[in-house]
Each structure stands twice: as structure tokens, then as C-alpha cells.
């Protein structure tokens, strides 16, 4: 069932329209893309399958609209973003309901994502006005051999057209984390939402539409990535790509040429646990970090490295908490809900079966119904098992027992990923030394990995990404430096 009320504007029959040039449009392709409800495994929504020609028109309008938007005062840009944030929060219910149906996100988490997204937009407006309103003055006599005859004024100016590609697991939050910095910096924005999450994104874009942004400044192009993905990412009018997702990002990076990239491509977030750690705290964070939203988070705990002496006690405490997790549909706010697709469930199950064949200890019975996989802690995992290296994106957490800190660091750093990690110990000196040695973009001390707060820097090393996110970093990344040099007469010049 599609949303009603104010969002009826974005429907054509039972197919959601796409957004370009300030209007909701039906694609000339006459085709649509079905969005499958992960819980029912039946079609829930349909979105337009846009054509390459429609992409071209959206890009052309974005390029044109950006020119006047770049001349719009910062306070006015910020004012419109604040308005969009307020509208977004007002419509948390219909957008949240879409998240429940499209990606099986528990209802309470779905509504929280929308509110968090509104907060991000508002904060971004404030931060953008502050940092973009601040230029810099350099004088020539600060460098040896030069007189005081040159003044250099530097400022940050927009890149142009930003292509934003968010993932299915946080389609609203990770879309606005790209949209808001792009807009406050004076860019235009073309959004390519994921298929699962596309309707949530369209509803979110409608909030920006209702806020009154100029026509052509924001577009939302729906369709299959296999049909228009490469066309979008290699389009000559794109001046920046902000992408969150999987290995597809590596292919995009190889084709992108000279344009700036901001990418977060997943991780194998390691949790190193020392002998002196508070095991109750650790167990709580493994549950929160490894199993929330069924493990479908880039910052989920993906592998535990536990010192041998405390491993038995830790596993016991985690198992006791796993037993209390509720499993079922997202509408009932269950802790464990269906993963996003049958393909994803099959992949996760493949990792589980590989671990079983190679001798891992199953702390719970492996159980699956459709896309729903029951939470599973795997003990006595060894590095040769796929689950030790690959990212499951599901409610399965492996435990590798280690005999030394160095062994844990070695296993962590041998991964091709380097997004986040965490260390549990009461010894802050050890924690800092381990953090320094871990090849990850962020290390959490005595807490599970987490993306937020959204203004914190967020970056990955190795195959986990390019560039740094977080509100301030994203604003800076979506601008370039412009210098204007004023040349004065030589100081020896007579002024009268």
C-alpha cells in the first residue's frame, strides 16, 4: 500500500514518480522497478525506470540551477535547509513506515532515522554558514624575499553537480548526509537512491521540494543500477561523487577520473578484548554492535578477538543476552528482522555453512525462515574460515580466540577493510597504543563501533573508502579553494 495524503503528489497510479526540474515526473520508458518487501518477500512498491535521456536532462538542469544557487547568500541556503529539516521531522511517520516495508527496519529505529536526518540537515545549515563564511587573507611579506605588495584572498566555492548514491540500510540518513553539505556549499545535487529504500528517498526529497528549493537544484533519479548506474557515475556533468555501499564503489573509483570522490565501502570491524575488560560492558556492546538491525550496518561488530583467558566467560555472557533477543517482523519492533533480500540471506547462510564445515562451534542453533536469520554467535572461529574475513551484513558474529594483543592487531590489520574497530580494556595506555596500531579510520575505546554523532569525522582506510565524512568534512570536501591575488605597487612607490 502506498503512502497517502501530501505524498500522493508523487504517485502515478501505483508507481512512484521520479523528481527532476522541480516536478514529479513519469518516465518515458513506460517501465518500473519493483521493490520487494523483505518480510513478505512480495512486491511492495514500484518506482520509475528512468532513461539515459532523462538522466541527461536532470544533469543539464542541475548544472544550470547550480550557477544561480552558488550566488545565493549563505543565510538563504541555510534558511531553506532548516525549513526542509522541519518538514522532514513532521513527516517521520510516512517515511518511517516506508523504511519498515522496504528494508525491514524495526519501526522505532525507522522513525529515529528520520528525526536524526532532520537534525543532521539543521546542524549542517548552521555549520555551513559558519565555515563557508570564513575566508583567509595572506600577505606576501610573510615569505622570504618578498615585499608587502601582494594580498591573497582565499575562499571556498562549490564544485558544481554532486552525484549522491546512498545504501539501502540507511537510505534517508545517508542521503541527507550527502544532500545537506552539497546544498549549503552551493552545489546542485542528483540523487540515485538504492532500489530497496527508493520510496523512502523519494518521500524525503519531497520534503525538500515542499521547502521551496529552486527548480533543477535537486533531482532524484530512480531505476536499476545495471541500466543507468555507469551512465550516471561517468556522466561528464558530474563534478563529485559521494557513494556509500559495497565493492561497487571500487569500480566507480576506477572510472571516475579526476573528479573528487567521497566513499565508504563497508568494513570488517574488529573488537579486541583484553583480560581486564568489563565483560558485562563488552557483552552489552557486542549485542548492540553486532546484532542491531540484524547486523546490516557498516559499523557493526563483524569479528571478535578475545583473549583466551576470558573467552569462555565472555561467550557465556553474550549467549545469555542473545537468548533474550526477539526475532520477527519489523512492525513488531523485533530486535532481529529479515535481512534485505533472499540473495543476502543466501550469502550469509553460505558463510555460516563454511564455518560449520571447518569446525566452528555454534553457540545457538542455526535457523532461517525466508529472509529471516536467527542471531548466531560462532565460537572457535579460525582465520581460514570465510566468516573471519568476509563481511556478512547479517546477525552472525564470529569469535576468534587470541593469545596476545599483537595477535589481535595482526588479524585486524590483515583484513582488506579498515573502517572501524574497538578495544575493551581498563588500561587507557594500552587502549591508546592498540588504537595507534589498528589500521582503521576510527577506533572506539570501551564501546561498539558507531557512525555517529553525524558531525564526527567518519572515514575508512584500505578498501573501506576514500575521503572523510561527517558534516564539516563533507562540506569542505564538496568545495574547492579559490584564490584572488591583489597586486599593489611596490612599497618604494611614491604615494604623494
UniProtKB/TrEMBL annotation:
EC number: 1.2.1.9
Pfam families found in the cross-reference section: Aldedh
GO annotations of cellular component type: cytoplasm
Gene3D superfamilies named in the record: Aldehyde Dehydrogenase, Chain A, domain 1, Aldehyde Dehydrogenase, Chain A, domain 2
Residues annotated as transmembrane: none
Keyword flag NADP: yes
Record key words, sorted: Cytoplasm, NADP, Oxidoreductase
Catalytic activity entry: D-glyceraldehyde 3-phosphate + NADP(+) + H2O = (2R)-3-phosphoglycerate + NADPH + 2 H(+)
Entry annotation: catalytic residues: 264
GO molecular function, one term: glyceraldehyde-3-phosphate dehydrogenase (NADP+) (non-phosphorylating) activity
Keyword Isomerase (UniProt): no
Protein family membership: Belongs to the aldehyde dehydrogenase family.
PANTHER family: ALDEHYDE DEHYDROGENASE (PTHR42991:SF1)
Protein name per Swiss-Prot or TrEMBL: NADP-dependent glyceraldehyde-3-phosphate dehydrogenase
UniProt source species: Lithospermum erythrorhizon
Amino acid at each position: 500500500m502506498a503512502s497517502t495524503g501530501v505524498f500522493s503528489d508523487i504517485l502515478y497510479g501505483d508507481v512512484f514518480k521520479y523528481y527532476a526540474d522541480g516536478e514529479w515526473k513519469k518516465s518515458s520508458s513506460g517501465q518500473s522497478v519493483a521493490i520487494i518487501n523483505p518480510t513478505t518477500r512480495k512486491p511492495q512498491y514500484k518506482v520509475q525506470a528512468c532513461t539515459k535521456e532523462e538522466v541527461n536532462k536532470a544533469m543539464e538542469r542541475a548544472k544550470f540551477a547550480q550557477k544561480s544557487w552558488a550566488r545565493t547568500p549563505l543565510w538563504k541556503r541555510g534558511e531553506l535547509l532548516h525549513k526542509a529539516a522541519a518538514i522532514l521531522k513532521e513527516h517521520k511517520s510516512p517515511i518511517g513506515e516506508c523504511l519498515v516495508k522496504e528494508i525491514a527496519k524495526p519501526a522505532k529505529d525507522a522513525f529515529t532515522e528520520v528525526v536524526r536526518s532532520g537534525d543532521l540537515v539543521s546542524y549542517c545549515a548552521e555549520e555551513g554558514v559558519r565555515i563557508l563564511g570564513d575566508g583567509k587573507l595572506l600577505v606576501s611579506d610573510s615569505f622570504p624575499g618578498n615585499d608587502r605588495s601582494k594580498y591573497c584572498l582565499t575562499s571556498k566555492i562549490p564544485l558544481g553537480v554532486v552525484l549522491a548514491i546512498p545504501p539501502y540500510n540507511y537510505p534517508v540518513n545517508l542521503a541527507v548526509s550527502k544532500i545537506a553539505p552539497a546544498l549549503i556549499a552551493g552545489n546542485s545535487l542528483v540523487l540515485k537512491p538504492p532500489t530497496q529504500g527508493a520510496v523512502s528517498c523519494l518521500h524525503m526529497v519531497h520534503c525538500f521540494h515542499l521547502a521551496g528549493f529552486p527548480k533543477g537544484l535537486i533531482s532524484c533519479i530512480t531505476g536499476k543500477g545495471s541500466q543507468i548506474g555507469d551512465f550516471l557515475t561517468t556522466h561528464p556533468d558530474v563534478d563529485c561523487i559521494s557513494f556509500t555501499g559495497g565493492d561497487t564503489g571500487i569500480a566507480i573509483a576506477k572510472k571516475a577520473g579526476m573528479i573528487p570522490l567521497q566513499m565508504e565501502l563497508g568494513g570488517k570491524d574488529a573488537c579486541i578484548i583484553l583480560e581486564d575488560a568489563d565483560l558485562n560492558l563488552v557483552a552489552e556492546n557486542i549485542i548492540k554492535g553486532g546484532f542491531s538491525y540484524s547486523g546490516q550496518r557498516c559499523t557493526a561488530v563483524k569479528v571478535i578477538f578475545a583473549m583466551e583467558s576470558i573467552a569462555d566467560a565472555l561467550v557465556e555472557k553474550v549467549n545469555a543476552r542473545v537468548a533474550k533477543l526477539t526475532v520477527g517482523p519489523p512492525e513488531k519492533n523485533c530486535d532481529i528482522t529479515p535481512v534485505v533480500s533472499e540473495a543476502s540471506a543466501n550469502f550469509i547462510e553460505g558463510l555460516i555453512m563454511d564455518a560449520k564445515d571447518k569446525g566452528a562451534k555454534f553457540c545457538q542453533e542455526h535457523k532461517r525462515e525466508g529472509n529471516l536469520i536467527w542471531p548466531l554467535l560462532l565460537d572457535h572461529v579460525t582465520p581460514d574460515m570465510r566468516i573471519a574475513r568476509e563481511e556478512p551484513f547479517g546477525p552472525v558474529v564470529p569469535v576468534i580466540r587470541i593469545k596476545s594483543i599483537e595477535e589481535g592487531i595482526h588479524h585486524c590489520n590483515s583484513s582488506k577493510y579498515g573502517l572501524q574497530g574497538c578495544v575493551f580494556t581498563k588500561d587507557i595506555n594500552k587502549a591508546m597504543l592498540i588504537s595507534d596500531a589498528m589500521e582503521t579510520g576510527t577506533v572506539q575505546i570501551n564501546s561498539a563501533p558507531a557512525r555517529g554523532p553525524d558531525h564526527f569525522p567518519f572515514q575508512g582506510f584500505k578498501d573501506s573508502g576514500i575521503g572523510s565524512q561527517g558534516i564539516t568534512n563533507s562540506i569542505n570536501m564538496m568545495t574547492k579553494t579559490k584564490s584572488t591575488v591583489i597586486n599593489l605597487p611596490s612599497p618604494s612607490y611614491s604615494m604623494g
